[in-house]
Amino acid sequence: MAKQSGRIRVLDEREPREGARYVLYLMQQSNRVGLNPALEYAVAEANRLGLPVVACFGLLDGANGFPEANARHYAFLLQGLADAAQGLRERGIAFVMRRASPAAVAVALAREAALLVLDRGYLSIQKRWYAEIAEGAETRLVQVEGDVVVPVETASTKHEFAARTLRPKLGRLMDDYIAALDPEPVRHRADALDLRSEIEIGDPDRVLAGMSLDRTVPPVRRFKGGETEARRRLAEYLAGPFKAYGTDRNRPEAGAASHMSPYLHFGQISPVEIALRVRAARVGGPEDKASYLEELVVRRELAMNHVHYTHDYDTYAGAVPDWARKALAEHAEDPRPYLYTEEELAEGRTHDPYWNAAQAEMRVTGYMHNHLRMYWGKKILEWSPTPEEGFARNLRINNRYFLDGRDPNSFTNVAWVYGLHDRPWARRPVFGTVRYQSENSLRKIDAKAYLKAVEKLCAAEA
């Protein structure tokens, strides 16, 4: 951990509380046991102080739930928490899960903690939780970054213009942070602690059934949540399909994607672990590995940079650059070749069979290939009455159906459709100088093969 001290921020510098019963870790973003710097920091401090470790999680549903989360998202989350709870028990770490906000759970349990360890998240709601904890928890408070390769502020102290401006900064730092983190044995088990967990996570389906939430978007069979499943999928991927990543990554029908994005979103696998395994993979050449790390580190952490340094990243006015809003405003009255309602878009009832297939894959299975996400988003802009309404539709549909929706990548990808991290292009109707994407872009893929693949995937969910 000392080698990566840049991951550690002390938010309250008071000394650890004397007479405490445990060291507390709020496991709210890094929902895993393996290669979890915040958890390992808590274990090291507990061993030093002669105390056990307690990990906690606050689960909200109903009107107070995580914004836009539905049964699909919660099912995947709960599966992952059940897996994490088992891993914690095996290490002798207690896991307490309660029906309250993460901040409320952490503040309550911190009353008997020597110190409180937080992981990191960059969305506004996560920052609000941390602020509430800092105000209410009267104990030593330490935050440890574990869900990016290079801590965001370490990589850059400002909002980056594009991938090309962030890439060299990450390139100078990432090798120092792509390093294994050996777990330290837990010297004082938490078995004797009498702490009440309001939610028994061993049966995630039962927990889900008892929650008040939107069930119109059901869980999917295509993806099962959890660290164990993430590692199984990654090992299977790196043993075969990865060998064609450099050449086939932009062909959704080719099966060259790793499908790690839902697991990264829920913190069920570390990006550092993925990077280590990609570098050590026996299949795939330098181009495959470099291309994958570009997506995993540069593109993903550009998104983290965007939401961290942009206050209103989920709004058209806040996320779309001035030049792009001006260009789109100049063409806001241009005739649209097609106009669809949001319901028609969500149900995939347009004139374009390939767009409809991409929407069906997302709506039914919770996933869409990145190459098609760009085409999908550009068409929503083109088929909406105004760019502002298009942006709102993009974000609502994205966050509703994607397993990895409501993520920094999602907010950034939607804003990219409208000009973020891009430059002016040749002027066109509707788009102005914002990048346009036509049906001709589908010529780069085997579109008919993709239609058949989606039909098969959707049938498996029925």
From TrEMBL:
Record-linked Pfam families = DNA_photolyase
Cofactor names from the entry are: (6R)-5,10-methylene-5,6,7,8-tetrahydrofolate
Q: Which residues form the Photolyase/cryptochrome alpha/beta domain?
A: 21-152
Domain of life where this protein originates: Bacteria
- Gene3D superfamilies, per the entry: 1.25.40.80, DNA Cyclobutane Dipyrimidine Photolyase, subunit A, domain 3, HUPs
Task: Provide the protein name.
Answer: Photolyase/cryptochrome alpha/beta domain-containing protein
State the organism of origin: Methylobacterium iners
